[in-house]
Amino acid sequence: MRTQTSSLRSKDLLGIEHLTPEEITLILDTAEGFKEVSERPVKKVPALRGQLVINLFMEASTRTRVSFEIAEKRLSADTLNFTASGSSVEKGETLIDTAENLMAMAPDMIVIRHKYPGAPKMLADRLPASIINAGDGAHEHPTQALLDAFTIRERLGRLHGVNVSIIGDIAHSRVVRSNIHLLTKMKANVTVAGPPTLIPVEIEKLGVRVLHSIDEAIDGADVIMMLRIQLERQGKLRFPSLREYYNTFGLTPQRLRRAKEGVIVMHPGPMNRGVEIASDVADGPWSVILDQVTNGVAVRMAVLYLLGGAHRE
Predict the structure, then answer these.
(1) Which of 186, 69, 188 is closest to 134 using CA atoms?
(2) What distances in angstroms separate CA 148 from CA 22, 98, 309, one per listed residue?
(3) What was the pLDDT predicted at 85?
(4) For position 123, what pLDDT does the model report?
(5) Running DSSP on this structure, what letter comes out for residue 132?
(6) How far apart are alpha carbons 122 and 3 in whole angstroms?
């Protein structure tokens, strides 16, 4: 499917939940063009020349932060990186005060990661700059879902009708929420699986199938997306031990044989090898984990361009 939509309705990207299928397709189609930029000898275009993007990361991040920084530089934007460590936040300054002080520097866009759900929306409601959610608590992580969808479409040629099984810590993952919203909008078939203690109550109302067996979830899957056990958000272990979890829910080469021929294995990172995924699988021919990282730059270039560049042309 190729979209007829030429722009996004909102000045912000706060989540997938309120995007239309046409807007999702527009972002993915735009990312296709930007992926070619990363393959050039000179990996740069002038699309955001003269615009200022502030990366406001109030929670630890490596892949997402670096991916956004690279995307911004490849679009020729000026960038400013701000982290909570060593800032006035440590002295008690509120997020709003921090954002308003940064806004006084006239940024065009602010990319924010925050441990509290709703923080990006709070800024979007108060600031004229475009706000891009780079992950807010256990709520949403829209650009991760978009790069996952881009990778699936690139490998399998479609999203419609694809069987996607998401396995692991469903309850504490912002990635899974964004992916469920996106994949169901694009008519993929989504299964979530994990221990009962890691499955949110009534998640099936989002249009997914719920299982408590990894073997059942893998059976017939086109895409297997493994999730990290997020101990930092759980507060306490929700299962007997990490070894027991791996024995029951870890993705191994033996278990992978139940999937369809041509299955692809995904992981948003960081991986815990030997906990949710075996090294033989993470590094095997099924894995598209590094493709996800590569595609993340193209997708974030597309989002930045559509919010900050396309409507100014």
Answers:
(1) 69
(2) 17, 32, 23
(3) 66
(4) 95
(5) E
(6) 30
Q: Provide the b/e sequence for 96-110 (b: ≥16 CB within 10 Å).
A: eebbeebbeeebbbb
pLDDT along the chain (313 residues), means of 10: 73 97 97 92 94 93 94 97 69 84 94 94 95 94 98 98 96 94 98 94 95 96 92 55 89 95 95 94 97 97 90 50
- 11 backbone dihedrals φ, ψ, rounded to 5°: -80, -10
Type of residue at 17 = E
Q: How many CB atoms lie within 10 A of CB 219?
A: 16
Tell me whether residue 92 is exposed, middle or buried, using C-beta atoms within 10 angstroms of its C-beta: 0 to 12, 13 to 18, 19 or more.
exposed
The string of DSSP letters for 26-85 reads HHHHHHHHHHHHTTSSS----TTTT-EEEEEE-S--SHHHHHHHHHHHHTT-EEEEEEST
Whole-model pTM: value is: 0.93
Residue that has been written with the tokens 């044989």 in this structure: 257
The residues, any chain, with a CB within 8 Å of residue 103's CB and separated by 6 or more, are 110, 127, 128, 129
User: What pLDDT sits at residue 138?
Assistant: 86
Block residue for tokens 């000898």: 41
Give the pLDDT score at 234.
47
What spatial distance separates the first Cα and last Cα of the chain, rounded to whole Å? 25
- Which has the closest alpha carbon to 25: 310, 313, 312, 306? 306
Q: Side chain identity at 244, as an amino acid letter?
A: E
For residue 239, the model assigns a pLDDT of: 63
CA 29 to mean position of chain CA atoms: 17
pLDDT at res. 1: 46
- The Cβ of residue 164 has, within 10 Å, a number of other Cβ atoms equal to 25
